[in-house]
Write a structure and sequence with these properties.
Two copies of one chain form a homodimer. Helices cover about 35% and strands about 20% of the residues of chain A. Chain A is globular. The relative contact order of chain A is 0.19. By secondary structure, chain A is α+β, with helices and mostly antiparallel strands. β11 of chain A pairs antiparallel with β11 (about 295-305) of chain B, so a sheet runs across the interface.
């Protein structure tokens, strides 16, 4: 008799090929030109589930479809809701990719492609672990419900609406997501806290057309100057965000949490040198890990305006704009922050400029209690899959769906990241370690068994 | 006996026809496809000078030729160096022209064509006034040297090199340029001051590639945030530029100059509404005209970084950059300002960012003293030609050739603009008022006489 774990090892190479098939589909959800590709990626994963004999539903939305797939053959056992997403970030800037983003390439033990780690590669580990059980034992130890969406990179609006409308249909015991990172190579981790996010676009309109900066400069308000002033006004010299009331609901870290963070094997100079910088800046009084995980932050994600070509053009631009975002910690309220931000920007918007602030999406931060039995089960599964007990970390990014699972379905989420922090998610040359891919499949296969031991909570 | 002034009136209609011939030649210097046309426009004007009996030289350059034409038959009298250009801006967008750009058309008292005002029509007034003198008096009151180039719209590189190499050859007493505008219809003007410029590109390099703003935000210095901070740091809330020493050499305006500017028939609300804004901002304590003409200014001409596409991308960009410039007033030194700027930006550049400041070009501002005898002579000539005494204005832009005449030849320049601010130079439907064309010829004919009264300065 082959065990599910042996099966996973025997079929490792086919699993990689299948992942490559999925990665070849340029399912860029933010780009209308890729609308059909996004759908192809949904159909592709739905077929995977069908081939395994799961009950599959392709849920149409005004945006991209949601794939719901269930194996509910373990009555009395817990139900895990496994979330993943088949959409990917835009691949720009293309010229920085060593190999094309949608031609998956194996190199140095990694697979390089847009979506390799975020999230096709990681989501696929749970699909393959289910295959390993079903093809060997013809059953799973617990019930598993997959929810694979295509709008994670653009805000998950339709998934969230679907969840809110189908609370009973989706009732489960715990959520499982692999869309984060290990702490370091060889140091698997469970992420028990996430930052939230508020993301905005600010558009400034000055004169109705570009003007000559000689004839008009100094008297006509320049939207590019104002953009710089507004963006700069959002933070002070000590790295403190200046939106009124921004820190009101921020819980100061406990001494115990700060000690735990300080005890992690974090190599700060390696962290900086890996991204090619000689040092960093941030909120005064906090360590680098604290700045990334347990403190809010402010980033300009993009800005534009006026002449961007070669040489000198003496233009006073008619428009300028920026995208920027705040990372939030648990208890900060995105709506409250957006209101305060809007008021602040309007108050400093000078004569001659019309401003528009677009609120893209917001999500509060979340934490899962470290003494949760789900956390223990996952820790054991990871120890069996990776050969090493995980550390417990937080993550600076947001996974809005985690907040939605908590609010709409009352679920805690196990964030079992198989990736690495240098996997270049959202950047050129995104990759995923093939060893981690296979260890992730093993850990997932163990997870179903470990969760069975807990019984049903509901 | 016919006077030169009577001659000009008698031959008005032929002068218009000749101008139309010149305007029909599509001498677009920026477009290689028009290379032969540009040369035809040079040959055309050289023939005009030959027919008048001037000494003509067509100077070949690696680009388009320069036409030098002289009448030096008044020994002991001053020599005026008359500058103009026979090249024109590209006519695009063509579909916005009511009549084709190179088919000159008379309509509503104007002549419509590319080059009508910038600069063929204006330059031609001085050629026709010379004709009026030579065909009636067989002499000019002073010596006149024309320098008509074909690269004004693309930077005048070869003209400037020629001037630097031929200082003695070009020795003159005053320069005359008609390539600007009157203050308003019926309000002729002498432009006695121009602002200078320093133009820069600032490039900031943060991490070696784009990073995820969730995982890294707050701890890795974001070059787009720093760009905003740096650009904002260059100006304070009162519109004062913050480069140390920036105002050291700025001469405060005299009460008399401020009174003169305030007395101009300037309609501020029309000025704002023409460019589609409801108001302006600038240096506190100064009027709109003062901000445009006699005070320095700071404009971001372009900026870029990170994600500029549709939707939300949570990126911490690897690079950001901007083009920006200062307009300078006379006595400010571009090199000194560049050095202080560089020092300031380097001092605020935070850990994790490498900055590069590129200095594109600088030119000091210029003023011709209002009590200069050349200004008085020109004012009298304009009064005689236009029937109204000119106002004295400044211009916020730079005219590089004016700086070159000052630096290389030690010449003050009389900027005698016959155009109107709504003549659409550099835009579709460029035009020139025929009345202003003929008044310009008269004023020019009077100018030679008025300048003779001054005697030689050199």
């Amino acid at each position: 008799m082959t065990t599910p774990f042996e099966y996973a090892e025997q079929h490792a190479s086919r699993f990689e090929e299948e992942l490559c098939d999925w990665l070849r589909i340029p399912s860029v959800s933010a780009d209308d030109a890729h609308r059909d590709d996004v759908r192809r990626a949904a159909v592709w994963v739905a077929q995977q589930f069908e081939q395994l004999g799961l009950q599959v539903e392709q849920i149409e939305t005004p945006g991209h479809p949601i794939v719901l797939a269930e194996w509910l053959g373990a009555p009395g056992a817990p139900t895990a809701l496994v979330y993943g997403h088949y959409d990917v970030q835009p691949p720009d800037p293309l010229d920085l990719w060593q190999t094309p983003p949608f031609e998956p390439t194996r190199r140095d033990g990694n697979i390089y492609a847009r979506g390799a780690t975020d999230d096709k590669g990681q989501a696929f580990t749970h699909i393959k672990s289910v295959e390993a059980w079903l093809r060997t034992e013809n059953r799973l130890p617990i019930n598993v419900r997959f929810l694979i969406e295509g709008e994670e990179e653009i805000g998950s609006e339709h998934l969230f609406a679907y969840i809110a409308d189908h609370r009973d249909r989706l009732r489960s015991d715990v959520a499982v997501i692999s869309d984060t990172s290990q702490f370091a190579p060889g140091v698997p981790a469970i992420t028990y806290g996430l930052r939230g996010i508020c993301y905005y676009e600010l558009r400034l309109q000055g004169p109705s057309q570009d003007l000559h900066s000689g004839s008009f400069g100094g008297a006509i308000t320049n939207p590019a100057n104002v953009l710089a002033t507004m963006l700069a006004a959002l933070v002070d010299d000590h790295g403190r965000i200046q939106v009124p009331g921004f820190y009101d609901d921020v819980e100061p870290p406990t001494d115990e949490e700060r000690r735990q963070l300080a005890a992690l094997p974090f190599d700060q100079s390696a962290f900086f040198s890996e991204v090619g910088v000689d040092g960093g800046t941030g909120e005064e009084g906090y360590t680098t890990l604290e700045r990334r995980w347990i403190r809010p932050s402010y980033d300009v994600n993009g800005l534009w305006g006026g002449y961007q070509g070669q040489g000198a053009k003496t233009v006073l631009p008619s428009k300028a704009g920026a995208k920027f975002s705040f990372r939030l910690v648990p208890r900060q309220n995105p709506a409250k922050i957006t209101a305060a931000l809007r008021k602040m920007l309007e108050s400093i918007c000078p004569p001659g400029i019309r401003m528009q602030l677009i609120d893209f999406h917001g999500a509060p931060g979340v934490v899962v209690p470290l003494d949760s039995p789900f956390i223990s089960a996952a820790a054991t599964a990871i120890e069996k899959g990776f050969g090493r007990r995980p550390v417990f970390i937080r993550e600076g990014g947001s996974i809005p769906v985690v907040s939605v699972f908590h609010e709409e379905l009352g679920l805690d989420t196990l964030l079992l990241g198989w990736g690495q922090s240098d996997d270049n998610m959202h950047a050129p040359n995104e990759k995923f370690s093939l060893a981690d891919f296979h260890r992730g499949i093993l850990a997932s296969a163990h997870l179903w068994e470990e969760l069975r031991r807990l019984g049903t909570s509901g």
